[in-house]
Amino acid sequence: MPSRHQGTEEESLALDLTIKLARAAQALMNRVMGQIVAAGVSPSQFGVLDALYHVGPMTLGDIAKKHLKSPNNMTSVVDTMERSGLVERRRCEQDRRVIYVDITDKGREIFSKLWPSHVERIVDAVSTLSPQEQVDLAALCKKLGQAPIECDGSHD
């Protein structure tokens, strides 16, 4: 459904694109995250497990940046995961002020069971696009995501 905004063509085009992009992203996540949620792992928790499994121990700040979440939100997610035994916090030996979050054996086991079928669902979900369309869309999304935000202060 296009935007009903009564503005310029540029505004209508931008709003329509934003609506379609947001809906497509939400529909994709709904299709690929259902089994994860059914297994008792939230999308945010799965994202943390993914990062720790594939990258290794990270600080809360780094995890928050990677997932575009606030540090406060990520602290809450990691607190819940720690109580469930999926992750653990460890102080850095070189700088005791730094605390790393690491995946536990339990977290690794759960993630490694969920990951293969998750990848299959993603491949299936995006297969409606040709391989070249997937490459093109990924490049466009990256360009859009990295675009600087221009702010002249008039919208405060």
Considering the chains and any ligands shown, give keywords for the structure:
156 residues; mainly alpha; Arc Repressor Mutant, subunit A; 3-stranded antiparallel sheet; 8% strand; globular
Explain how this protein is built.
- A three-stranded antiparallel sheet has the order 1-3-2.
- The protein contains six helices and three strands.
- Helix 1 crosses helix 5, helix 2 crosses helix 5 and helix 3 packs across helix 4.
- It has one domain: Winged helix-like DNA-binding domain superfamily/Winged helix DNA-binding domain (Arc Repressor Mutant, subunit A).
- The chain is globular.
- It has 156 residues and is mainly alpha-helical.
CATH superfamily descriptor? Winged helix-like DNA-binding domain superfamily/Winged helix DNA-binding domain
The total tally of domains equals 1
- In terms of structural class, how would the helical and strand content be classed? mainly alpha
Shape: globular
Q: Major β-sheet, in short? A: 3 strands, antiparallel
Report strand order across the widest sheet.
1-3-2
As a whole number of angstroms, the C-alpha radius of gyration is: 19 Å
Beta-strand segment tally: 3
First and last CA, distance: 29 Å
CATH class: Mainly Alpha
What is the N-to-C order of secondary-structure elements (H for helix, E for strand)?
HHEHHEEHH
Mean residue pLDDT: 90
Low-confidence stretches: none
Helix content: 55-70%
Beta percentage is 5-15%
What count of helical segments does DSSP give? 6
CATH architecture: Orthogonal Bundle
Query: Might you state the CATH topology name?
Result: Arc Repressor Mutant, subunit A
